[in-house]
Amino acid sequence: MTDNDAGWDWFDAAANPPDEETLKSDMGLALAFAKCFRGKDGGQVLKYLRSLTMERALGPNASDSFLRHVEGQRQLVSHIFALVERGRGGDNQNTK
């Protein structure tokens, strides 16, 4: 078994930063997310996603599988918020 077989291959991305073309396509995607979620309707959707996932507390009887499911939802919503913020200019390191 190698290190990558253990599920740690995402560390490789940190050791090998993305090239210029990848950064441009990532920024294009971030701009699309920012455009999609701007305005009153977009804000309402983001508020709903946050309340449904990040502001949700589970009781002590929640099963392990349900906890994993909800944590996956939280990760996805967090990623959406990060893309929106980057597209709105909140991530200046990728705009150079």
Question: What report would you give on this structure?
Answer:
With 96 residues, this protein is an all-alpha fold. It has one domain. It is built from four helices and no strands. The longest helix has 27 residues. The radius of gyration is 17 Å and the shape is flat.
Topology at a glance:
Elements: H1 11-15, H2 20-36, H3 39-52, H4 64-90
Task: Name its key features.
flat, 96 residues, 66% helix, mainly alpha
Which structural class should the secondary elements be placed in? mainly alpha
Largest sheet geometry:
none
Which term fits the overall shape? flat
Number of E strands: 0
Strand content: under 5%
**Rg:** 17 Å
Q: How far apart are the first and last residues' alpha carbons, in Å?
A: 40 Å
Overall pLDDT = 83
Helix content: 55-70%
Which regions have little confidence, pLDDT < 50, spanning 5+ residues? none
Helix and strand run:
HHHH
The number of distinct helices, counting runs of at least 4 residues, comes to 4
**How many discrete structural domains?**
1
What's the quick description here?
The protein has one domain (19-94). Helix content is 66%, strand content 0%.
